[in-house]
Amino acid sequence: MAELHILGQLQGVYQVQDSSSLFCRFSLQSGPNWTVVSGCCEGQTASGKPDFKNCVVWAHPIDIHYVTTGIQGWPKLVLELSCLDTLGRSWVVGYSCCSLPAEPGHHNITVACWAPAASTLTDKVRQYFLGGSNQLIQTDIINLGKDRFKLNTQSKGNIQVQIDLVLRNFSQFGVEYK
Hints:
Elements (H helix, E strand, L loop, with lengths): L1 E13 L6 E9 L4 E6 L2 E3 L10 E14 L7 E9 L5 E10 L5 E12 L4 H10 L9 H5 L8 E16 L10
Antiparallel strand pairs: 1-5, 1-9, 2-4, 2-6, 3-5, 6-7, 8-9
């Protein structure tokens, strides 16, 4: 079987406009041909407050080992940026998704984070006075992209991911890298 080993870290978020404590929930999603040998497909970073540059550093490790019978359903990284306020309430601030590179080696990935924008005056007033944000009811829209073009969204910063990919036995399945 072909093997894919993903090593790296969620470095942090930058260009974020939120002053609350931020953390990130992540999951690696793959097709039916992919089986996890070791590691955990999902997790959550520690929370941190943005510094004077509007950056939060997490340096949260990612270590997962897959075996596969084909390259269909290559793993994607799905991220949910969340906020924790002074009252202990948490809510999703933004969403993002990226396909992992299909080339072995070291990769620095910048993933743009977005959130549904408040569309009515009532929503804008509620967000301003009560906090919180508009959230997705169906989260499949994040990684599938289906019907996402219908959403009115706003930018919520960029998440920096550092990944090292190690591929093994892919040449036996006719996959070559130059």
